[in-house]
């Protein structure tokens, strides 16, 4: 009885081999007729070797398909000159791999050029890939250099290399935002400009165009986008250009026209101050919403609410906790806020130890007892975009109590900030608890975790109206 494996057969000599015809749709890239690999002299050897051989062939076919897709994109009407050049360079490399001599390359170039009308030595009306192929075959990449990169080229490189847009792990919203911002800038400039040709005047035109937009959620009120939104978008543009400068090997002296472009003063007060975007939840709203969440929400969601309310952490910081990040025993129970594979942190100062006291400590202990598979503290929400799901679910309860757009889940951080201020907690301790930027070098560098936890625990208990712990018990 033979092996029941796809593309496997037994040769006349009795050995087992993998044989598979090259699919027609990739025959332009994989020029051989078939894949043929020996698997072994026995069925046992063939079974052991098959998975690796089959996977390798599948990878070759997929790579060929990507190559053809890239060639089609580079030959399409929307392709950039650099994409066309890269495809032409690949075609030249293929000819050299197949043994083409310099004379053969020249003859191939002449034949390709002759398929178009001629103007002396240059083909007329040739698509970019054909034009670049002719020149590369005649001159080589040393003498025929790639075209200068444009802002569109910078975007494509940024999406591919920095954001890894093709990876299933990449947040599609981040990719979409970067694409929209850069494409809007290209539209505002009126062309896809060379990076070296973008002036400060072009950048100001982009900024003014951004400031003149009306919010999509304006409901017909004509409300303009905020200066803060435009600042974030210009920061993305600046990051794209900076990344391109490094990756394209452009000189450090080349200025970035989108860097430090003034927005707020040009907007003349348009938009809101950071402190006006969100309000703390009024006492009545907070009490009613908490009651609704604890009575009606799923257990995990209720625990998340209690921990956010009782620590002032960002929602994503709580939903992204690992089990090992929660210390509920010992002298100073706390949360360890660190970046992990599921979520980054907003700033460097966000890395911190947050005291667990009162109801937040009880909620953390209950969370540790949840049934789970894996390392996340909250199995349902400890995933990509889990904080978004938790926010949406909690907002449904909050909106049953308050329709004020400034009342959101992030308002709980503002509530904690107010409690700390009213308890006359020092700015340093406030920043240590909330993860805000610290002041001087001494505040950022000096002091051990235990000393900081001792002080912030004392501050947190005071802010929440809990009795101070006996000093002797803490010493």
From TrEMBL:
InterPro entries: CB, DNA_brk_join_enz, DUF6538, Integrase-like_cat_sf, Integrase_catalytic, Tyrosine_recombinase_XerCD. It comes from the Bacteria. One of its GO terms (molecular function) is DNA binding. One of its GO terms (biological process) is DNA recombination. Transmembrane segments: none annotated. Residues 280-460 form the Tyr recombinase domain. SUPFAM superfamilies: DNA breaking-rejoining enzymes (SSF56349). Pfam families: DUF6538 (PF20172). The keyword DNA-binding applies. Keywords: DNA integration, DNA recombination, DNA-binding. Residues 149-245 form the Core-binding (CB) domain. This is Site-specific recombinase XerD.
